[in-house]
Design a protein that fits this description.
Layout: H1 4-7, H2 17-24, E1 37-43, E2 46-51, E3 54-58, H3 73-80, E4 91-93, H4 104-113, E5 118-121, H5 123-132, E6 143-145, E7 153-156, E8 161-165, E9 179-185, E10 188-192, H6 200-204, E11 215-219, H7 220-224, H8 231-236, E12 240-244, H9 252-261, E13 274-277
Parallel strand pairs: 3-4, 4-5, 5-6, 10-11, 11-12
Antiparallel strand pairs: 1-2, 1-13, 2-3, 7-8, 8-9, 9-10
Helix pairs in contact: 4-5
Length: 279
């Protein structure tokens, strides 16, 4: 998790003109044959993505954390019970094992309730799932830990998924494994980077600019902090950007200021807010 001093107190004056120019130049989602993409916001960095009959949950089965936008008990019950709109989910992803991105009981219960779902995460998250979920033996054949080296990818072609090693901060102790995910939802290609603090050259080592990313789900510091200048415009080059990991106490004026700076970005204000994208 991140300290508010770094990632929750951006100065709109210091953001810099580069971002407005970058996002204004981004093209709509690629692919003439692409189906409509539905993004349902859940909490913090959690989303349900749906297109072409495929559903993916990423960083959605989490614990409660008052520092970030959280879901209600009702939504949590629907998620864990694989109830609509969270029924028939094909793929469940968690970028790392922190409680605002992953919660062992929630993941385990969803997998029990939804026998079609496959779970992919870091070794640390899978270890917590194994140790903390008492019925792990019933789901272990659908649980996968990926451990790619930096600049390389762990590919799951049968899942339409590629896993990247995007560090959570090199000075953290203990070190936190953090994955980036490039995955397919229908004819859309999605990127979710979790809580990475990787810089432009580290992103560039993954050649994401060649992937044809339609939607990049990025934490606010990558979008607004000039430390990460060039990550979006050069290293990723996505069709659209959705901003996540925002403070729960933001007012409408904060969203208005952010939207003015990142004019083409998508912002979510509350759990179960839905955005539909067309090709």
């Amino acid at each position: 998790m991140h300290q508010p001093s770094r990632h929750q107190t951006w100065s709109w004056i210091s953001i810099g003109f580069w971002l407005a120019v970058t996002l204004a130049a981004l093209v709509p989602a690629r692919g003439e044959s692409a189906q409509q993409l539905s993004l349902t916001y859940i909490s913090n960095e959690g989303f349900l993505l749906e297109a072409g009959g495929r559903k993916v949950l990423v960083d959605a089965l989490v614990g409660t954390n008052p520092r970030y936008i959280s879901m209600s008990h009702e939504v949590r019950s629907q998620l864990e019970g694989a109830e609509a709109p969270f029924d028939d989910v094909d793929l469940v992803l968690a970028t790392h094992y922190h409680g605002d991105h992953f919660e062992a009981q929630g993941v385990g219960r969803h997998l029990l309730a939804n026998p079609r779902a496959v779970f992919v995460s870091t070794r640390q998250a899978v270890e917590k799932l194994q140790n903390e979920f008492s019925e792990f033996s019933k789901i272990e054949d659908r649980v996968h830990a990926a451990a790619p080296k930096e600049g390389q990818r762990h590919k799951f072609p049968e899942l339409g998924l590629e896993v990247l090693n995007l560090h959570h901060g090199r000075n953290r102790r203990p070190l936190v494994e953090n994955h980036g995910f490039v995955f397919e939802v229908g004819s859309w290609k999605i990127l979710h980077v979790g809580d990475t603090e990787a810089q432009k050259d580290e992103f560039a080592a993954n050649s994401l600019d060649k992937d044809g990313i339609d939607v990049a789900l990025l934490p606010g510091w990558i979008v607004f902090d000039s430390t990460w200048e060039g990550v979006i415009s050069e290293a990723i080059q996505p069709g659209r950007v959705a901003v996540m990991h925002l403070p729960p106490n933001w007012k409408e004026k904060d969203f208005a200021a952010a939207s003015k700076q990142a004019q083409e970005a998508l912002f979510f204000r509350h759990a179960l807010e839905i955005v539909e994208l067309s090709p």
